[in-house]
Amino acid sequence: MSYVGAIDQGTTSTRFMIFDQTGKVISASQIEHAQILPQSGWVEHDPLEILRATDHVIKTALQGAGLTGADLVAIGITNQRETTLAWSAVTGAPLHNAIVWQDTRSQSILDKFDRPQREKISYKTGLPLAPYFSASKMSWMLANCEAVKRAVEQQDLRFGTVDSWLVWNLSEENIHVTDVSNASRTLLMNLETLEWDDELLQAFGVPKESLGTIKSSSEIYGYTKVNGVFGARIPIAGIVGDQHAALLGQLCFEKGESKTTYGTGNFALINTGVEIIRSKKGLLTTLAFKLGDEPAKYALEGSVAVTGSAVQWLRDQLGIIQKSSDIEALAASVPTNGGVYFVPAFSGLFAPYWRGDARGVLVGLTRASTKAHIARATLEAICYQTHDVIRAMEEETGVSIKVLRVDGGITQNQLCMQIQANILQTEVSRPIVSETTALGAAYAAGLAVGVWKNKEELLSQWQESSRWFPLATAVEASAGLKQWNKAIERSLNWI
């Protein structure tokens, strides 16, 4: 039996999973890391804490499986995408905390671009100019971090997303690479050439030599250190941004196939094949993945900033629940939301609105409103935001999504998935392995080293775990959407 490992470095936690060649989970370990919030709108992670967490989960998962690193034939890496790090090429030390994709501090940098510049950048990258993406985070560090400024002068600067940081630290020769899916989220890669674009680099003031080489999503980039956490020389053979990895894990290889991942945020992607569809409905045009020498596949994506993290907010900031899983029973204790609607626009609204001026609102409160109504409104907010993205996606592509393939932690919440089916008036399907992000990274790595011969072999492994059918009427769904849209209007123009 061949075993493939997958590092899944996410926004709130790091996970290591081991899969066998049938795609079955052999072992897994996960640990949360701190969210550093220096001031309003700023979100950071400690790069060294991420490395410590990665070491911990690798050791723990291997021990749990009774394996050693030498038992793995390859490892893949999937990661929170736009989160940006800077480190020294000489010492490997971080020069600043990682600036997380949710961080909005670089908005003022983007405000300086005029309309023709914005249109050119968006055309080349498929992305709107938003602080969500990596380029303006790099610009901010270049302008505001003394250690980064010194590193530029000494030609010692390395910029990268989390995948680059992990490969640099795990590989025996400190390799500096990224893959096309992560590079496509920086505002610096040209969608057509799949290379760093000189004009974009100049616009954001990012030195080209500070960036890693762009590779495919499935190839051998290098090998792990023998004296490192694995204790063996293992091929690092897959790198895929988390949402693209989930698309792979759901086996959406062909045009028109889609998935929605429920995590800290929600991310829906639809494969558009080799065609670049430039969105007119507030979606993102992005690289889906590139498997070795095969042509790159593109996708449309709808990104929702706050879904699972809204549940964490109820837990950590409001104290309404003690642990995240408590929300299902609390929300189910009332038959409806009692007229309460919650728009968790903590750092603005992402797709399909792209409104940085929006902020969170809780509306429709009466004296009869309880924490249960707020809990139910939170689950409904996850589903309404997903509805808005899926409808935009259908309009953009002309493809009617008959069954919504879902994955991620919140899909274990039966009530939330039933609400999703009701609001969308569409069947919702979850596979047996719901953590398809890690599975997709394992598939990418395994394909590169021959664990799986081809995509057809992978397709034969997919199995469904659960399916939800709409129980609400179309009239009921429409009435709820009308109120939701009113709540969205209330969230706008706060900043």
Question: Could you characterize what this model shows?
Answer:
The protein is an alpha+beta fold and 495 residues long. The protein has 2 domains: 315 residues, Nucleotidyltransferase, domain 5, CATH 3.30.420.40; 156 residues, Nucleotidyltransferase, domain 5. Strands 17-18-16-15-21-22-23 form a 7-stranded mixed β-sheet. Strands 3-2-1-5-14-13 form a 6-stranded mixed β-sheet, with helices on both faces. A hairpin with a 4-residue loop joins strand 2 and strand 3. The longest helix has 27 residues. The radius of gyration is 22 Å and the shape is globular. The termini are far apart. The mean pLDDT is 95.
Topology:
Layout: E1 3-9, E2 13-20, E3 25-32, E4 44-45, H1 47-65, E5 72-79, E6 84-88, E7 98-99, H2 107-110, H3 115-125, H4 134-144, H5 146-153, E8 157-161, H6 162-170, E9 177-179, H7 180-183, E10 189-190, E11 195-196, H8 198-204, E12 213-215, E13 218-223, E14 235-241, H9 242-249, E15 258-262, E16 266-273, E17 284-289, E18 297-304, H10 308-318, H11 326-332, E19 341-343, E20 361-363, H12 371-397, E21 403-407, H13 414-424, E22 427-431, H14 436-449, H15 455-459, E23 464-468, H16 474-491
Parallel strand pairs: 1-5, 5-14, 9-12, 15-21, 21-22
Antiparallel strand pairs: 1-2, 2-3, 4-7, 6-8, 10-11, 13-14, 15-16, 16-18, 17-18, 19-20, 22-23
